[in-house]
């Protein structure tokens, strides 16, 4: 029998939940807090003091010594600066642990070293963190001790967003306002709030920590920059959903427990397609909490791995030749009285509100396909999107047979009288049940797929924050809702007007619907014919942030100012250049200091053998041929190394962020690939005992 684990009891143990607040706060204070949580506004300082004290008491009872404002700067990860609750001793030398409302609400990290894209010069280093009351505080426990973490937004002195949370929360407010207008039009007078719900399925790789530590590329770049393929990859499909190995299972068990304690609803776990690749999915929740929780999932994955002598790789493409990792961002829109606007119901063809929402989403995604592509790009994701792997870089929507047919009827005749049914699934075995089939099969190659009552945005990279993708989704749909509401609120005949509008939007934007194979070359050509954008690289997508269309969208809904967008552009170009620079320098270092010397030693031993065999009077031709082949490849590697050094020195001398990013993409990256090709060829020739680091076979199959 298994050891008893009371999940209900440990769930949320480390979270300052609503229940704990209710228990610990005076009733009036509690009511004020929940009101602000639900409707926005500010807490009075007196109330904040009471909340802070209750929070601190709870934290200290659970072993906390410090607190931190936990925030999400433009590094893609989280940041924290710990302050203890220690205060000035009184005249008797006694000290009381304290935490004030002011400290809870506002922090001032001297954060001049975070990326700001020119928004702040270092001499104007002031940045503020502001408590996000809608995301619960929690305790982080590790070797540092127990730290009370307060989720916060991070802004500059002049109020510009320097993080991923602030724009996300602004976008949620925009979507709320516009979606409420839509539901009101359909007679819903009771909903007071509409929020996006998000569930992010997180993919990751696990490797042995000892082996990881022998790979400078994994340490510095998070991915292998060299490595010949193992004899076996993922071609047998035997890892996907395969039995979870004991060592991984024990890791997953601890990971779940840690996450449950943090109030993260870890739900699904399985082996993924590539060897050593796995997935974890939580249950969906309000977007900004889902974003925070996804950060916690990533952090916890890494932390628990190191306790198990393992290392968790969140990079989008840690290994060439097998699948990379992404994050499926499941997104829907729900009212506070329980209506999911993306629920088609039994008869979607008659569900006018659903059809209007769908038409608006088609319009939004088609109009802003470029922004959506941008929102899911990061440096690592360039190895997935558009690189013959899930999903393609071209944005399209998958609706499935049933809805696609409804759209087609609406476009052609203005009405959708018929509904394709799923029918019964017959197994052909009398003892197995027959099922009602879903009306639609799954499509695995679409970047934006309707999956029953939500859209699954599959482009986001595994290491990236889901903040940006959800901000963009909320923003573009808010805009479409707003434009629809502007028309419909003025209509004399609502039924007629909504009917016309659905037909108009669906007709105009049907080019964005694609139900076929998103990986095929035929789709690339077809998408081009349809005029859909196809941006191969993150670098190509950066400029979409500051097109007049984007500025108009984001400014209208107060999500980003033009200045904020420009600063983000700059940060992205810089991030790209810096990341590639680290990768290139790591390759140069590894090639110069360990790979080439190892091959040189190997050629020496071959040469000794050739001489010895020859002197012994035998035929040394084979040994000589091997020596000649290895030496030739070594020469190629040496030449490629010199070329890479040259390209890096050109790139580093460049001033302009955009030009520099492009130079890294078009020149440095090409030189990196050439060096890798030579080194990987050498790896297949050289004695394994001489090879200076663990190989793909060691990393992927011996966990
Ligand atoms: P699928 O198998 O289609 O990917 P799952 O049921 O496994 O669907 O769900 C995947 C993720 O989608 C989970 O995180 C789940 O909580 C989330 N999800 C399910 N329904 C919704 C919804 N209405 N809105 C947002 N996310 C959802
Ligand atoms: Mg899924």
What's the arrangement of secondary structure elements?
Blueprint: H1 7-10, H2 18-24, H3 27-39, H4 45-61, E1 64-70, E2 83-84, H5 101-105, E3 106-107, E4 127-131, E5 138-142, E6 145-156, H6 165-185, E7 194-208, H7 209-212, H8 216-221, H9 246-261, E8 266-271, E9 277-282, E10 285-286, H10 287-307, E11 310-313, E12 327-335, H11 352-367, H12 369-375, E13 397-398, H13 400-413, E14 424-425, E15 435-436, E16 448-450, E17 455-457, H14 467-488, H15 494-508, H16 521-530, H17 538-542, H18 548-556, H19 562-615, H20 621-652, H21 657-683, H22 696-701
Parallel strand pairs: 1-6, 13-16
Antiparallel strand pairs: 1-2, 3-4, 4-6, 5-6, 7-9, 7-10, 7-11, 7-12, 8-9, 12-17, 14-15, 16-17
The chain binds adenosine-5'-diphosphate and magnesium ion.
Overview features:
Creatine Kinase, Chain A, domain 2, 3 domains, Four Helix Bundle (Hemerythrin (Met), subunit A), Ubiquitin-like (UB roll), 703 residues, nine-stranded mixed β-sheet, binds magnesium ion, binds adenosine-5'-diphosphate, 47% helix, alpha+beta
Describe the structure.
The radius of gyration is 28 Å and the shape is globular. The chain starts with 6 loop residues before the first helix and ends with a helix. It folds into three domains: 7-163, Ubiquitin-like (UB roll) (Roll), CATH 3.10.20; 171-560, Glutamine synthetase/guanido kinase, catalytic domain (Creatine Kinase, Chain A, domain 2); 576-701, Up-down Bundle (Four Helix Bundle (Hemerythrin (Met), subunit A)). The strands form three sheets. Strands 7, 8, 9, 10, 11, 12, 13, 16 and 17 form a nine-stranded mixed sheet that branches. Strands 1, 2, 3, 4, 5 and 6 form a six-stranded mixed sheet that branches. The chain has helices spanning 7-10, 18-24, 27-39, 45-61, 101-105, 165-185, 209-212, 216-221, 246-261, 287-307, 352-367, 369-375, 400-413, 467-488, 494-508, 521-530, 538-542, 548-556, 562-615, 621-652, 657-683, 696-701; strands at 64-70, 83-84, 106-107, 127-131, 138-142, 145-156, 194-208, 266-271, 277-282, 285-286, 310-313, 327-335, 397-398, 424-425, 435-436, 448-450, 455-457. The longest helix has 54 residues, at 562-615. A hairpin with a 2-residue loop joins strand 5 (138-142) and strand 6. Helix 13 crosses helix 15 (494-508). The protein has 22 helices and 17 strands. It is an alpha+beta fold. Magnesium ion binds next to loops.
């Amino acid at each position: 029998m298994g050891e008893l684990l009371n999940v209900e009891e440990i769930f949320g143990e480390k979270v300052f939940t609503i229940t704990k607040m209710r228990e610990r706060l005076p009733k009036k204070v509690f009511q004020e807090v929940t009101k602000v949580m639900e409707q926005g506004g500010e807490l009075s300082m007196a109330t904040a003091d009471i909340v802070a004290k209750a929070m601190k008491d709870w934290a200290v009872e659970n072993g906390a010594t410090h607190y931190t404002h936990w925030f999400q700067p433009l590094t893609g990860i989280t940041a924290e600066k710990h302050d203890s609750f220690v205060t000035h001793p009184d005249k008797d030398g006694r000290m009381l642990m304290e935490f004030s409302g002011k400290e809870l609400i506002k922090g001032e990290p001297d954060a001049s070293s975070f990326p700001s894209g020119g928004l702040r010069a270092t001499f104007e280093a002031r940045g503020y963190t502001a408590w996000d009351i809608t995301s619960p505080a929690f305790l982080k426990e590790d070797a540092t001790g127990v730290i009370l973490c307060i989720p916060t937004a991070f802004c500059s002195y002049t109020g510009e967003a320097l993080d991923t949370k602030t724009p996300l929360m602004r976008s949620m407010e925009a979507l709320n306002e516009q979606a409420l207008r839509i539901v009101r039009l359909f007679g819903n007078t009771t909903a007071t709030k509409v929020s996006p719900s998000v569930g992010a399925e997180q993919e990751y790789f696990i490797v042995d920590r000892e082996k990881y530590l022998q790979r400078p590329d994994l340490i510095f770049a998070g991915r292998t920059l060299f490595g010949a393929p193992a004899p076996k990859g993922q071609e047998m499909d035997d890892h996907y959903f395969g039995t979870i190995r004991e060592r991984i299972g024990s890791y997953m068990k601890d990971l779940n427990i840690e996450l449950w304690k943090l109030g993260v609803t870890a739900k699904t776990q399985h082996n993924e397609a590539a060897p050593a690749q796995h997935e974890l999915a939580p249950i969906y929740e309000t977007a900004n909490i889902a974003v925070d929780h996804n950060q916690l999932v990533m952090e916890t994955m890494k932390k628990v791995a190191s306790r198990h002598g393992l290392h968790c790789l969140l990079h989008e493409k840690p290994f060439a030749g097998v699948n990379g990792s992404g994050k499926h961002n499941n997104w829907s829109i729900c009212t506070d009285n329980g209506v999911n606007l993306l629920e088609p119901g039994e008869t979607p063809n008659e569900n006018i509100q659903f059809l209007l929402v769908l038409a608006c989403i088609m319009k939004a995604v088609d109009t802003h396909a470029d922004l959506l592509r941008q929102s899911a790009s990061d440096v690592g994701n360039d190895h997935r999107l558009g690189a013959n792997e899930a999903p393609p870089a071209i944005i399209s929507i998958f609706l499935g047979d049933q809805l696609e047919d409804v759209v087609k009827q609406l476009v052609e005749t203005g009405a959708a009288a018929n509904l394709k049914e799923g029918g019964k699934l017959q197994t052909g075995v009398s003892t197995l049940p027959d099922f009602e089939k879903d009306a639609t099969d799954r499509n695995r190659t679409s970047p934006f797929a309707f999956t029953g009552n939500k859209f699954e945005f599959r482009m986001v990279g595994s290491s990236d924050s889901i903040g940006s993708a959800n901000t963009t989704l909320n923003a573009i749909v808010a805009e479409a809702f707003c434009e629809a509401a502007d028309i419909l609120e003025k209509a004399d005949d609502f039924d007629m007007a909504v009917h016309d509008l659905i037909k108009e939007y669906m007709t105009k934007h049907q080019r964005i619907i694609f139900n076929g194979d998103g990986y095929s070359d035929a789709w690339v050509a077809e998408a081009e014919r349809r005029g859909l954008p196809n941006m191969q690289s993150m670098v190509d997508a950066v400029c979409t942030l500051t097109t007049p269309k984007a500025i108009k969208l984001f400014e209208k809904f107060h999500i980003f100012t033009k200045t904020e967008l420009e600063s983000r552009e700059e940060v992205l170009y810089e991030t790209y250049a810096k990341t590639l620079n680290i990768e290139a320098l790591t390759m140069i270092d590894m090639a110069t200091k360990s790979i080439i010397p190892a091959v040189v030693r190997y050629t020496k031993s071959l040469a000794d053998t050739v001489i010895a065999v020859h002197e012994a009077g035998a035929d040394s031709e084979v040994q000589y041929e091997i020596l000649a082949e290895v030496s030739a490849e070594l020469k190629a590697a040496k030449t490629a190394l010199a070329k890479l050094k040259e390209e890096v020195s050109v790139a580093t001398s460049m001033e302009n962020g955009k030009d520099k990013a492009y130079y890294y993409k078009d020149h440095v990256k090409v030189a990196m690939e050439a060096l890798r090709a030579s080194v990987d060829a050498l790896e297949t020739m050289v004695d394994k005992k001489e090879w200076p680091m663990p190989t793909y076979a060691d990393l992927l199959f011996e966990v």
